[in-house]
Specification:
Structural class: mainly alpha
Distance between the termini: 54 Å
Strand content: under 5%
Shape: elongated
Oligomer: single chain
Largest sheet: none
Order of helices and strands: HHHHHH
Helix content: 55-70%
Length: 128
């Protein structure tokens, strides 16, 4: 319901637009009976709706994970010259990144919700 309210507010502001001036008092849907739509406002609303339609027609395509590049980025971010990862730790980090990606995709969650980067890094460092 809240998004519909937001839509009504934005639509009212767009419809009453005059030049580059937005009538923010028109945002209140309670006052929508008193609105006077301008030609410019109708064109602005139509342009917004057209862009929204175009955006809705686009399809998002998931890119497969490249674990090596993800590990490289983590190494750049967290590695120190005093304590870089050895080969075993790097392989572990790579597997952890793959595990996190697989679980995140299955649960439809973000990587950082599953395990933040710093957590994967600390696990890799603590490997005996």
């Amino acid at each position: 319901h809240y998004l519909l309210y937001c839509f009504d507010c934005l639509r009212n502001v767009l419809l009453t637009q005059e030049g580059n001036v937005f009538n923010m008092r028109a945002a209140l849907p309670e006052d929508s009976a008193k609105l006077h739509a301008t030609e410019e406002g109708v064109r602005a609303l139509q342009a917004v709706l057209d862009r929204s339609r175009t955006l809705c027609k686009t399809q998002h395509a998931e890119c497969p994970l490249d674990p090596e590049s993800a590990v490289d980025k983590l190494c750049e971010r967290y590695s120190s010259k005093q304590r870089p990862l050895d080969q075993r730790q790097t392989r572990l980090l790579c597997r952890l990144v793959q595990w996190r990606d697989r679980l995140a995709r299955n649960l439809d969650e973000s990587w950082n919700f599953i395990a933040p980067d710093a957590c994967l890094w600390r696990i890799s460092l603590s490997m005996p």
